Amino acid sequence: DVLFYAFYYQQGTYQQYLAARELKKQSWRYHKKYNTWFQRHEEPKITTDE
After folding, report:
1. Which is nearest to 20 in space by CA: 31, 35, 4?
2. Is residue 44 part of a domain?
3. Residue 29's closest CA among 44, 9, 14, 15?
4. What are the tens digits of pLDDT across the range 4-47?
5. Does residue 30 belong to any structural domain of this protein?
6. If I label 4, which of 23, 26, 27, 46 is the partner at 20 to 30 A Cα–Cα?
7. Rounded Cα gap, residues 31 and 5, in angstroms
8. pTM of the model
């Protein structure tokens, strides 16, 4: 919960960057269109650079 707080309420700071980096390490992915974090049920079978 603290990581999400840091990401959403400390916009444009180094703390936001660190929170995003840690969320990504924990298999969370940010969707720019919906401005929210999602976690997959399983890893994708095929991946691309995007």
Report:
1. 4
2. no
3. 44
4. 999 999 999 999 999 999 999 999 999 999 999 999 877 777 87
5. yes
6. 46
7. 17
8. 0.76
